[in-house]
Amino acid sequence: MSVDAQSAATTGQTDGGTGGTGGKPEDGFWVGRSGLMVAGILVVIGLYLTHGIVTMDVPEGAKIPGPKFFPVLITIATFVLAGLLVVQGLRHPEPVPQDATNYRMHSDWKSLGIVFGAFLAFALLLVPVGWLLSAALLFWCVSHALGSKRPLFDIGLALVFSSCIQLAFGAGLGLTLPGGILEGIYG
Amino acid sequence: MESLNLLLDGFSQALTPMNLLWVFVGAFLGTAVGVLPGLGSSMAVALLLPVTFSLDPVGAFIMFAGVYFGGLFGDSTMGILMNTPGGSTAIATTFEGHRMAKTGRAPQALATSAIGAFIGGLIATTLVVFFAPKLAEIAVLFGPAEYFALAIFAFIATASVVSDSVVKGLSALAIGLMLAVVGIDGISGASRFTADVPQLFDGVSIIVITVGLLALGEVFHVAARIHRDPKLSAVTVSGRPYLSKREFREALPAWLRGTAYGVPFGVIPVGGAEVPTFMAYGTERRLDRKRKMPQFGKGAIRGVAAPEAAGNATSGTAMGALLALGLPTSATAAIMLAAFQQYGLQPGPMLFERNSELVWALLASLFVGLVMLLVLNLPFAPLWAKLLLIPKPYLYAGITVFCGLGVYATSAAVSDLLIVLLIGALGFVLRRYGFPLAPIMIGVVLGPLAETSLRNAMMSSGGEVSVLVESPVTWALYGVLGLVLLYTVWKRLNTRVRQDV
């Protein structure tokens, strides 16, 4: 599934020259057609399903229609729909906004990348480092990516926020959040 | 009057001090999440779902009742004050609501919407109390073929009616169905599409999918746009949050007409309340043009009253369809269904027999939730508007942390955090290119039902496909589906012609 994220990044670059020069028709084939990416995602899903169907171990004595039956229907639908999306994308490209923006791309991939990376870091650090610090890091990174201008104040706010949650949910509602390196201090 | 007695029992269960506290907390949090920019009612339910797991089932559903209606009200508050409806059901309310706000009548618009939500919800829930048991009795007659027909109905109707493009709607549906087939197959025991990763044997949890698509996807969307789009500002709220007698009399017929539109649509799986809210809005506008002094365009109170009542009436009867048929007719209902399953309850005809106490407590708590909301929202609407002042970076940072908390709290698995991130990215891409998200939710929730009923029906018939269309019930369902599709096509052609003129 990580293919989705990668294709998101690469196609983002190909929708490159979009807004910059005011979206003239000669901007290239990909202008307004980056939506074809979704068709690509559907194809990837279809291939994954096909691979899964071919390699599936069906237990002895499974009745017909077996476990492959429904996925086969979905797989066929996925490929057909991907084809239709391609046709639709080729015939009706997305209109390029004509307003006076000087952005290279429709989406802000830098902010997006920071948020994505911060969540990934949170997921990987949660158990070894603990809720308090990893959640605070996530909070800080996201607020920074979305344009907060006070980094030092934000560190404090992030720590207060994550400790409040730890208290409310850990002590109040009895959810266990990983303590990590700070385990002994408040555990 | 058996229903009435059962309902009174339900009230006695729902009205304990602890449960009142939960409904209050639910209504409060639901409204708060609903009011926040970009977050709608289905997201309120998704984010708060994990929080309710530490409660007993009755307490959890009572809290949900509050969250559910609170989120809907929050959607409209956003729309009225900032011209950006929090959910698709609040779009129709926004047209006249925001005009009222701009002419200094924001509190009255909010009050109209709160009372409209109350009236619509009240009438719909009352109808559910009296008719849901009957509906459940009929539904007992349903076999696998009928349930398959219902699922197909929900799939096609959601995918084609809700989105602007049928292909996009169906693509979203296919993604949802694909997510639903991951995991161990319940009938044969075969491991499907798990790539031998043990964490996937149970399938992808609906909570992970909901939080990823609706919450994390929204954060990504905001991150991609926040330095691009012009800043929105909210209309300030001041003055009396009550309606004068004249305003009340003017809005009353609109509330009732809106409710009449909303009630039937809750039972039909067409993916939510957009259709009835727009029908109610359109009717009021046509009626308004015949009056001596047309109000529409200048902030008509009826233009707020009717869609709001319609929206909540739909949500009310949708709850009935969920309980009696086990059929989620909107994304929010789909998440509620997941909540039921988390407690080992299967909504549907048997629920009224097996867990009758719980059902009636839930129905009673819907009433309590409605009253609670009226109490919370009528006088405090100006306070809710203050929530719009939280700086965006902190708001979304907080939401992101809550996504992580919610997912980790339900499963305590890091793998789920990685899956939610991927689904969030997928949700962002789909939103970026205008794909509707509701069909994914419907596909995820009803996919297993569709598959098992299809296979059971065909197993019992020895592989004959004709078993799917043998009973009169299936004829009726496919017939209605055909009519819905014809209507959609007719409406599309019609608007196209009108645009050309």
Question: Strands, helices and their partners?
Answer:
The complex is a heterodimer of chains A (187) and B (501).
Chain A: H1 2-14, H2 36-55, H3 69-91, H4 109-129, H5 131-145, H6 151-172, H7 183-186
Chain B: H1 2-14, H2 17-35, H3 41-52, H4 57-82, H5 91-139, H6 144-162, H7 166-181, E1 183-184, E2 191-192, H8 206-225, H9 245-267, H10 274-289, H11 301-325, H12 331-342, H13 351-354, H14 356-386, H15 392-411, H16 414-432, H17 438-461, H18 472-500
Antiparallel strand pairs in B: 1-2
Helix pairs in contact in B: 1-14, 2-3, 2-4, 2-14, 3-4, 3-8, 3-12, 3-15, 4-5, 4-14, 5-9, 5-11, 5-14, 6-7, 6-17, 6-18, 7-17, 8-15, 8-16, 9-10, 9-11, 10-11, 12-17, 15-16
Order of helices and strands of chain A: HHHHHHH
Structural class of chain B: mainly alpha
Oligomeric state of shown chains: heterodimer
Roughly what is the average pLDDT of chain B, rounded to an integer?
Answer: 82
Q: Count of DSSP E strands of chain A?
A: 0
Helix content of chain A: 55-70%
Number of helices of chain A: 7
- Main sheet of chain A, how many strands, which sense, barrel? none
Largest sheet composition of chain B:
2 strands, antiparallel
Task: Tell me the radius of gyration of chain A.
Answer: 23 Å
Radius of gyration of chain B: 22 Å
Distance between the termini of chain A: 36 Å
Strand content bin of chain A? under 5%
| Fraction in helix of chain B | over 70%
What class, by secondary structure content of chain A?
mainly alpha
The tally of helices of chain B reads: 18
Large-scale geometry of chain A: flat
* Structural domains of chain A: how many: 2
List SSEs of chain B in N-to-C order.
HHHHHHHEEHHHHHHHHHHH
Distance between the termini of chain B: 56 Å
Biggest interface pair, counts: A-B, 78 and 68 residues
